[in-house]
Amino acid sequence: MARIGILGGTFNPVHLGHLILAQDALERFELDRVFFVPCAQSPHKTAEPPIAAAHRAAMLEAALEGDPRMEVSRAEIERGGVSYTIDTVEDFARRFPGAEICFIIGADTLAELHRWKDIGRLLERCAFVTLARPGFDVDAIAPESLRLPPPWPERLLARVAAGHAVDISSTDVRMRLAEGLRVRYLVPDAVEMYIREHHLYEC
Asked: What CATH topology corresponds to 3-166?
């Protein structure tokens, strides 16, 4: 059975931390492919609208070029409106019948899952796989703190693996660009080239 990973997000812009997270998920959870899915409109980040979805998807495609294990899906962009994970997971289930769909998250998201739209149905439709910073103590998390009915807390906590510690954020990348600072070593060279060419994130 194929194991398909989904990594959703705004990717405004994609940076090396996103790519390392995807590679960690591929290796730790033995995924066959990872799809990066840029949202049309995030239900969680409403303060500052991101740049156009076409730019965010194009930067992802530039970042992933040459890696057959990873690709970009424009499913949420094409669907439009607020992007909900349940809709995306059900779309992938139709596209890949018989495959195991794995949704990739960071450990800090575990405590927020109970707020996600249709979380009960979502937990039935896919396996959440979680990457945590080295040294993260999964045993220190009380299952009841996840605010989900059994057996989901135990299943979620059983699928936590250590990833690399990479302290890069899209917010920091945007701030550096706005201040005229360099972002080399924070984003792939192809992404930096695209940003410069299209004059993105400038004041």
From this structure: Rossmann fold (3.40.50)
